[in-house]
Write a structure and sequence with these properties.
Elements: E1 3-10, H1 13-26, E2 27-28, E3 40-49, H2 51-63, E4 70-79, E5 84-89, H3 94-106, E6 119-123, E7 130-131, E8 138-141, E9 144-153, E10 156-166
Antiparallel strand pairs: 1-3, 1-9, 2-7, 4-5, 4-8, 5-6, 9-10
Catalytic activity: a 3'-end 2',3'-cyclophospho-ribonucleotide-RNA + H2O = a 3'-end 2'-phospho-ribonucleotide-RNA + H(+)
InterPro entries: Cyclic_Pdiesterase, RNA_CPDase
Family: Belongs to the 2H phosphoesterase superfamily. ThpR family.
């Protein structure tokens, strides 16, 4: 069986709700928002993989040393090429970048774009969103590395968590 897989950082349910509420109040755009249950930050994209590759990914992730990670989100952005409105960290995060690059190297993944941490808010956007309220100001303490499967449904694409590996909690959180 084939699976469309990626590794990412999932938001907790209350964080997804906070982000969805902010998005509904702060952004004006004619295109519908991404399903809030899909909010996540992609670290490594595998594409289509079979069951044996899925098993290998799970095994490697179980053995992987994982860092404590947090991100402060405050930058609204737009990529015209992929027609995506997104929220990005307001400051570079070396630990996050290093971890994503380590995952890509471990799984020998090549991507034509460098790692650019973000949470997609609107897809199929022909133009940027207009900010009509306060800018975003979210600090997220990431709880787990998550292996997701992307599935097409009648309601649109949905991301299903197949496995989670806890991340350590830092001694102190700094934005």
């Amino acid at each position: 069986m084939q699976h469309r897989l990626f590794l990412g950082l999932d938001l907790l349910p209350h964080q997804k709700q906070q982000l969805a509420t902010w998005q509904a109040q702060a952004l004006a755009h004619p295109k519908a928002a991404v399903f809030s249950g899909n909010y996540h930050l992609t670290l490594a994209f595998f594409g289509e993989r079979d069951d044996s590759e899925l098993t290998d990914i799970v095994q490697h992730c179980q053995e992987l040393v994982k860092p404590a990670l947090h991100s402060h989100f405050g930058l609204l952005g737009y990529w015209s090429e992929s027609e995506t409105v997104y929220l990005a960290p307001s400051q570079p995060n070396r630990q996050l970048n290093d971890f994503a690059n380590r995952l890509r190297a471990l799984f020998e993944l090549s991507d034509r774009h460098p790692f650019s941490p973000h949470i997609s808010l609107i897809r199929g956007a022909k133009k940027p969103a207009t900010l009509v309220a306060e800018p975003a100001n979210f600090t997220l303490q990431w709880q787990a590395l998550t292996l997701f499967r992307s599935r097409s449904t009648n309601a649109g694409v949905r991301y299903q968590a197949l496995a989670r590996w806890p991340l350590p909690t830092p001694a102190r959180l700094t934005p």
